Amino acid sequence: MSNSPLDRGPGSSGDADSAGDAGKRLRPARTNATKQKLFEASMELIGERGAAGVTVDEIAAAAGVSKGTVYYNFGSKSDLIAQLLRHGVDILLARLLSVKDTSDDPLAAMGEMIGQAMDFMAEYPSFARLWVSENWRTPSEWQDTFTELRGRLLAVIGAAIDGVAAVYRVDPAVSRGSLETAIFGACFVVGLDRQTYNPERTREQSVAAIMASMRGYVVK
Amino acid sequence: MSNSPLDRGPGSSGDADSAGDAGKRLRPARTNATKQKLFEASMELIGERGAAGVTVDEIAAAAGVSKGTVYYNFGSKSDLIAQLLRHGVDILLARLLSVKDTSDDPLAAMGEMIGQAMDFMAEYPSFARLWVSENWRTPSEWQDTFTELRGRLLAVIGAAIDGVAAVYRVDPAVSRGSLETAIFGACFVVGLDRQTYNPERTREQSVAAIMASMRGYVVK
DNA sequence: CTATTTGAACTGACTGGTCAGTTCAGTTAG
DNA sequence: CTAACTGAACTGACCAGTCAGTTCAAATAG
């Protein structure tokens, strides 16, 4: 395997965290390639067979590294999965936020956000599967992680709903929290269903179906 | 596959409930009790920790029977789970169908169906967790089972949507299939979220949030 | 410029343990 | 009598985590 030490400027791509060591400025950190490969491999395998159904050996083999490397980069299988969840949510959040301020009609902005979510589900279906598989387990090893990440995602959706509510008259019988959840959940499920059972369904059809909630929320 | 000399236990598929079954020539009462206990125990455990995370020994212990009994009643762990899925869907379907013909306003009927779904999720949250955990895995041991059961459920929802579309003017840009999926998914996710993260949310709030899709589907 | 050192990254055999599924002689209850 | 169930032993596979050893580019010394 060729580990080219200079294949990128260190930490320029902006997706991974800055690895947090404050003091040492020499010693180039060429770590990310391996972690990235492990993220991709585990995302795929865990999405297919579930967190408990995949072995660390398989993940290592799929990433083209040895088992020890997994434990060198992550403290445990559980740790790997927790970081995987954060990694995926960071990507999704970045996409949702890229929309947030580009539009003046809040309903259109909402539609674009849902479209971004559909794209994300199509691109990372394994992440979506991992999420729905583990999100509601109690007690779960990743309960705190989920609570935090879920909160971050719902906050973004909630802000978009608030944007709509600020401009349009909305149905007071529908609580914002429940609507957030319904839209959030519908994004995952519609995205996954499209990938698993209805590949012929278009992005626009899916967005339109989820947006029906918003149009029903707005009092015409 | 089935090499167990005893695997012809009591009925291996049509086990939904004792009612309406005419021709059981053997003891029906005792049989169902054990299977029922095994269903309940596995539902609980598998909902908490996932199908792969639960051992047959645990299921047997939780049901208060021996491991051999599990293999006497079901040929395998996989078989147990397949029957568990059918069992749960039968219950949910029965509830949805109990609504279907009792109302004359199709929108109200839809709301009642969603309410029934909420009740089901509250009563069998572990089933809901099992469903969302395994439904979108590919390839999966229960892929065929899921495809069939999903079809049965979506047909009922689809019929309710058709009922609405027959009376109200509806948005032609929203495909029935996608809307079915969105509502179906929202039911699971809103129900699970209510149980896991927002126990204070009322049934009515949840129904209203999901029903927003239908009100948005209808052209006013 | 060359030689040596350092240590982060990585390796893979090994350990101690778990689990699904099998088997079967014996027990209970309809 | 017989179907349903028990309980314990057994097998063969599988697996998370460990650790002593290897590699090699960068740092440092000569």
Subunit arrangement of the protein: homodimer
Biggest chain contact: A-B, 55 and 56 residues
Number of helices of chain A: 9
User: What is the average per-residue confidence, as pLDDT of chain A, rounded to a whole number?
Assistant: 86
Q: What are the segments of chain A in which pLDDT stays under 50 over at least 5 consecutive residues? A: 1-31
**Strand runs of chain A, count:** 0
Radius of gyration of chain A: 20 Å
Please, could you describe this protein's structure?
The structure is a homodimer of 220-residue chains. The model of chain A is unreliable at 1-31 (pLDDT under 50). By secondary structure, chain A is mainly alpha-helical. Chain A is built from nine helices and no strands. Chains A and B meet through helix 6, helix 8 and helix 9 of A and helix 1, helix 6, helix 8 and helix 9 of B. The structure holds a DNA duplex (30 and 30 nucleotides).
Features:
homodimer; 220 residues; mainly alpha; 9 helices; disordered N terminus; DNA-binding
What is the topology?
The structure is a homodimer of 220-residue chains.
Chain A: H1 32-49, H2 56-63, H3 67-73, H4 77-100, H5 106-123, H6 125-134, H7 143-167, H8 176-196, H9 203-217
Chain B binds a DNA duplex (30 and 30 nucleotides) through residues 3-6, 9-10, 26-27, 29-31, 34, 55-57, 65-69, 71-73, 76-77.
